[in-house]
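FW: tagging you since you asked about this chain on Friday. Here's the raw sequence from the shared folder, copied in full. Didn't touch anything.
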Amino acid sequence: ALSNRMTVIGSSAAAFGVAMLVLLPRMGQELIPEVHQGEFNVEVSLPVGTPLAATDRQVRSMEQAVMEAPGVARVSSVVGTEREAASSSEEGENTAKITAALNVKGDLADAEEVTVSGLRERLSGIPQVTTKFSRPALFSFKTPIEVEIRGYDLETLRRLAKESETALGRIP
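HL: got it, structure written out here
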């Protein structure tokens, strides 16, 4: 290889070119494909400035519609988001997230698709409400349970953190 440098470099460049022009377009574009776990999310947005109580009322009626869909076993929702540096300016009291779990035996992908398409059609007619359907992320950097303790007295925060850790440690 050292005595035929140009041949080695040329053949490597040709192999790379073939891979980029022929193989790359035939490959899928997803880094992590969607996984069907029998769950889906409905992200709800109302107009900015909608009070939390109004968002909650709207989401409760939407929860009922989701619960009535065939195959849905459980529904939970989170209404409003706390304003943080990581959240966008569009998020706040006017946003919510409904999570639904299916109770289906058999092909989860088909059951999810049928349920989501039916709900998409049913929820699309609600005025001033924007919905976006998604599936839970396969990988997440968040822990399953997070406890935030806020305050200004570091000693009190330390004590409360230890008490919380001890109390959570007793839960099976």
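FW: The beta strands are 39-45, 72-79, 95-102, 130-134.
HL: agreed, and The chain is about 40% helix and 15% strand.
FW: great, closing this out.
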